[in-house]
Amino acid sequence: MFERLSSDLVIQFKRYGYWLVLVVPAIGALCAWQIMNSTAPNFWAFFPILFTFGIVPVLDYLVGKDPANPDEAEQVPAMSNEIYYRVLTLMCLPLHLAILGFAGYAFVNAELSLFGQLGWLMSVGVMGGIIAINIGHELIHKDPKIENWAGGLFLASVTYAGFKVEHVRGHHVHVSTPEDASSSRYNQSIYNFLPKAFARNFMAAWRLEAQRLKRKGQSPLSVNNELIWWYAISLGFAVAFYAAFGWMGVLFFAAQSFFAATTLEVINYIEHYGLHRRELENGRFERVTPAHSWNSNYLLTNMFLFHLQRHSDHHAYAKRRYQVLRHYDESPQLPGGYASMFVLALIPPLWKKVMNPRVEAYYEGEMDQLFREGKRVNNIATS
Q: Is residue 65 assigned to a domain?
């Protein structure tokens, strides 16, 4: 639909298209109201999931690809420094917290069946993955304290503070190597990947923070440990939900956190599936390039997700702001947007049927990189 338009025109369109992110809290508020007032509360409990993984993929396909890359010399410097784009991400924090509270109120007070309660917890978790974790991810990469701290608050609201440390200091250093728990292996199923990612990333976050403090001569068990502070804020959220809604409020907060974190790790699984950095003669891995992340360049979900799908450029240049991330034709390309690939990942036989040939085609002529023994055995799994 937009592929034949000029890059400049699409960039101007996207400038306001990023407001589509507000559809998520709007749907959250609408559904919270409906599950308390409609005659079909269970339907509305699941509607955010239906919208995200049923309606969005269809719209994504109809809208088509994103043809716009900003000009490095003329557009990138001005766009990178424009306050407008920062306000868009920061304003989502109070909106997210307000909707989270309203969703908790609805969970406790609506007449939902057990199935409907599960659906609402999953829906709120998915919305948390889109808003709290996705926008938090964008902000924790930024140097200004207000953005970095806002990113931490987003993550604390879904009890995933470890991501703030591990993602920046671990994942971006070790991506597409055996050392990275967030880089899924060739032929590995999502259900084999998830428990390992949760456990290894949690432990890595504490290890990395302890190493940072040790270099400064400080104790990991001190007020200088930022993980302690962020998890304390998560505990504060849980206490607030208890004060407002009792133990059901705590259950709501914990469950939506789990589903939000699961949403993140499924996306991690998709973003690096089967890709690897070659090992050099000196035993180190080659530098991270756009070849080490799967790219998806669908316009609608690009705007919904603040260009998270231009993941190749993000990993190659982690400090670049979302509005100036670029698409690379030479990067490995996903066959769909993140919403459709998320559904596919949950069905391992279909995922492998679609994705394994793409991995093999991308590494044609050097499949030994996937199957070789030693350190690189990480790149292939049997389940």
A: yes
Domain containing residue 343: 7-379
Confidence of residue 180 (pLDDT cuts 50, 70, 90): very high
Query: pLDDT per residue over 325-352, tens digit each?
Result: 999 988 999 999 999 999 999 999 999 9
Q: Cα dist. 155→129, 159, 207, 311, 381 in Å?
A: 10, 6, 19, 20, 30
Domain-embedded: residue 12:
yes
Look at residue 1 and tell me if it is in a domain: no
Measured in whole angstroms, how far is the alpha carbon of residue 119 from the centre of its chain? 20
Question: How many domains, in total, are found in the chain?
Answer: 1
The residue type at 358: R
Q: Judge if pTM exceeds 0.90.
A: yes
Average pLDDT across the chain, whole number: 93
Residue 355 exposure: Cα atoms within 13 Å on the Cβ side: 30
339: how many CB neighbours lie within 10 A of its CB? 25
Range 345-372 average pLDDT = 84
Decide if 345 contacts 334 (C-beta within 8 A): no
In a domain, 2, yes or no: no
